[in-house]
Amino acid sequence: MTELATTGTDLPRLRELNSLSIVRALRDQPPSTVTELSQRTGLSRPAVDVIAQGLVADGWATVLEPGANSAVGRPARRYQFRATAGHVLGIDVGVHKILALLSDLDGNIVHSVRQSVAADAPPADRLAELDNVISACLTGAGKAPADIWAVTVAVTGAVDASGRTSFFTPLPGWGDVDLTGHLASRFACPVQVENDCKLAAVAERWQGAASDANDIVYVLAGMRTGAGLILDGVLRRGYGGAAGEIGALKHVRWLNAPAHLQNCPGVPDTVGPDDAAAWVFNAAREGDKAARTAVSRYVKDLAVGAAALVLALDPQVVILGGGFSRSADLILNALRQELQRLCLRMPEVRASTLGADSVALGALKLSLNEVDDRLFSAGLSAPVAPRRK
Amino acid sequence: MTELATTGTDLPRLRELNSLSIVRALRDQPPSTVTELSQRTGLSRPAVDVIAQGLVADGWATVLEPGANSAVGRPARRYQFRATAGHVLGIDVGVHKILALLSDLDGNIVHSVRQSVAADAPPADRLAELDNVISACLTGAGKAPADIWAVTVAVTGAVDASGRTSFFTPLPGWGDVDLTGHLASRFACPVQVENDCKLAAVAERWQGAASDANDIVYVLAGMRTGAGLILDGVLRRGYGGAAGEIGALKHVRWLNAPAHLQNCPGVPDTVGPDDAAAWVFNAAREGDKAARTAVSRYVKDLAVGAAALVLALDPQVVILGGGFSRSADLILNALRQELQRLCLRMPEVRASTLGADSVALGALKLSLNEVDDRLFSAGLSAPVAPRRK
DNA sequence: CCGATTTTGTAAAGATCAAAGCGTATTAGG
DNA sequence: CCTAATACGCTTTGATCTTTACAAAATCGG
Q1: Which of A21, A322, B43, B64 is at 20 to 30 A from A58, Cα to Cα?
Q2: In angstroms, rounded to a whole number, what is the distance separating the alpha carbons of residues B334 and B331?
């Protein structure tokens, strides 16, 4: 059941609700006239007028005085959501790189900073690098920490309620790092830490291959294999934040699936372990027999875990993401065939369209969601950076 | 993000919202005074007063004139939600029996009818039996079809959007039955058809072993093995209604798991195939070596599928339901051990507390949810049976 | 170039609703 | 029997939205 507020609504609250309606009608729209807003919200024109003026006074909207007007009649003032009232951060702390995105409330990316990190860097160094990237991103955009309304950081491994990756993480020593606490000392706004697969899934639904779907299984296919789940349009974290970790089940052969590619016979010694998979995909594309069987075996193993998720959740679409999605041409059809064989109801299978930045993008989106949730649940005062509760 | 209505709110709508607040505050509570309601909703006492009188006039509430009053002061009139304004049906069409429950809007069961059916009865006979049970239940409660506000029917097998069990069902010929259509000719109210495992899960959350949890994996352990998923307090159907069908994956050994019990050496010929499992559990309880290993093997296979669901969804609690949950004393600890071995984060594992009626109870709850959703989204006119859209 | 038309902006009036305040009814306890 | 406490019902007040009306600003047609 929808958990509506059980509290009654008085007149000031009514104004607040209607203000929120107007804000909603303003967002993700070109600058709108009062008449348009009136039609969109069902409120009368005078009511919209006073509310819009109030929003401008509070800083939530800006006015565009009428200029050239193609239509007949008196040209209308236009109101616009002031997306620059606040900004949010989305950060991907990956194994090899750190990427920070800073955007306004509409999700327009204002500034981004990328910095490569050694895969075996100790936690302290990685945290220091993270701090540098954040600083660079803030100064690059001309913002102070107090201007940021929400921060989301992506890390690898299942994230528990405290923001730690205590179950497992490929980053050495990272399981004990209190990332939330570390960032909380710098930002007064809400700080979230979330798993990278989950955030990539969010990004694909936001701007990627799954923008039309509400039930999504995102499979991260790379040197690690993971999954992110979106059901009914909402990211599912699980009770302890470990949803999607189907790869931990031995009967599902995700753990060793990439080994088929790494250990494929014929890979030259000159190719490093991280590039072996790319070499195998290329070789398979050119017809190399051993490479083709390696890819085939990899997909078969990948499909078992994907099928488990599909059978468990019956999604509309399965998104193939991660580093190997660059070779989707070799994987997608085989994956479809395997899923068809294993599943009851066949979902669509699509390749990611966002590439490697999807994780940071998903983090950004989660920050935006956080802001929206506060905005639309708490009420509408003047725009200021929210503080953690 | 919460998908609030984008429409503005005017004064009549405000009254409606506040009326709904009062209805909420009235439900599942002992008869309440105006002052109590005022405190519960935050509305002023006069406002609550006029709204409550309106609810009485519309038929949503009844007045209890003041009688003996323990407290000091003038005794207050008490208002009570009129749960008998409407009634709903929850029906379980099982393999061996049909069970119909009829309740008022508070979920108080007014009448129930149970009728056994031959497992191999053809669909036409089963439908006729269903019609009889419904008629008996209605007349037994003194109700007409027009008095029923929602109907939910539980069937075995994954239910698609049309209410058919086209993927699979153990009932012979049932895959083609258009149950929704069949019932729609009799009831003008909304009719839902849903999978039995899913409904059992709903029931356990409503009144059973999982009433404190929002993320639940319900495992139906019986001659068939199935699952129902509740995430964030909401039943998950999946895009095509086939969520939870992890048993279809061969790597998960649910299909053949009960065979360990049925084919256990030592079962006397006098025991039929349906009772073999019960015999084995009893024998195991008394120390029979072969029976114990059979149970152990069964649990090991059951745990693989349960672990797949737990890893995929990371629930708070796993509920063991179905016929075999009567032998939870033999299963639960072994299941816990296996899950501990297989999973990342260990959920609680509990046995069902509702028994065989849970499916019909879950169907009833879904009907109640349907009514609530309409009530709290559409608005509050005089109480009449809702019609299908 | 000027008036008709259309659309916008704004003001005033009317309606609805909730809050606040106040007098009255009813009961308990001394 | 009388006082205090509690609850009820009514009236007044204030806030909000809608309707209606009218002035302002632009285009269109002659």
Answers
A1: B43
A2: 6
